[in-house]
Amino acid sequence: MNEARVADTKPAIQELEPGSYWWCTCGNSAKQPFCDGAHQDTGFKPMKFTIEEKQQIAPLPVQSYAKATLLRR
Questions:
Q1: Beta-carbon neighbour count of residue 39 at 10 Å?
Q2: What's the burial of 54, exposed, middle or buried (CB within 10 Å: 0-12/13-18/19+)?
């Protein structure tokens, strides 16, 4: 399994509408902090999360989780 790429060093503050989102765990996505499918053949899988009502969030990029070790599946 590859190591996660450091995508950024600060949270990406965004306002999200209700729905399901996929958080990037590999660090390769061009749409950080969300998955764009760039994890193919890396051994990483994105982490799904759901927003129930419109809200501002600050998802941390992959480096904040020690190279996503805890999020590998």
A1: 20
A2: exposed
CA distances from 45 to 15, 26, 41, 67, 68 (A): 24, 8, 10, 13, 10
Both tokens of 47, joined, read: 């982490």
CA 5 to CA 8: how far, in whole Å? 9
Cis peptide before 11 (omega within 30 of 0): no
Q: Is 5 helix (H, G, I), strand (E, B) or coil?
A: coil
In the block, which residue shows the tokens 């399994």? Answer: 1
Q: Which residue has the tokens 């990029």?
A: 61
Structure pTM? 0.68
Q: Give the three-class secondary structure for 27.
A: coil
Q: What is the mean pLDDT of residues 29-39?
A: 89
